[in-house]
Design a protein that fits this description.
Elements: H1 2-19, E1 81-88, E2 95-101, E3 104-108, E4 113-114, E5 117-122, E6 126-131, E7 134-139
Length: 141
């Protein structure tokens, strides 16, 4: 019975407190002044795990940094190639190009390779050749 009276007493106290009018204090907003935070330098660390392995009983192997060496590319000497003209058959689309390589004249068609020089494509004004990994456009002379 005492517990029931205690519960009803708490409920009654809360009701009376809620119904009683107390003067409310006015809310006053104050401007907030922004202060800059001081930035601290982050403390860094590194673990040095150079101790003996407790299971194997060995020390860790030291890693050697690989030294990268600059590879010098040897300049590819430019070959003496001259484009002299072309001959085309009407209707067949077969075109032959007159190309002089190192003083020797050859008749070449597209995708043909002579003395390491491959004729990629061409027209009446220029041809495109590839040799020693180098692509070069040669104009008609």
């Amino acid at each position: 019975m005492g517990v029931v009276l205690l519960v009803w007493g708490i409920i009654g106290f809360k009701l009376i407190k809620a119904l009683s009018k107390e003067p409310e204090l006015p809310m006053v907003q104050q401007p907030i002044s922004a202060l800059p935070k001081s930035i601290k330098k982050r403390d860094t660390f590194e673990l040095m795990a150079n101790y003996r392995d407790p299971f194997l009983g060995t020390l860790p192997a030291t890693k050697k940094k690989a030294v990268k060496r600059a590879v010098k590319k040897e300049p590819v000497s430019k070959r003496n190639i001259i484009y002299s003209g072309l001959v085309a058959q009407t209707g067949s689309g077969n075109t032959m190009f007159f190309v002089t390589i190192e003083g020797q004249q050859y008749i070449m068609s597209k995708s043909e390779e002579i003395n390491g020089v491959r004729l990629l494509n061409g027209n009446g004004q220029s041809i495109k050749v590839r040799y020693d990994g180098r692509t070069e456009t040669i104009v008609l002379q």
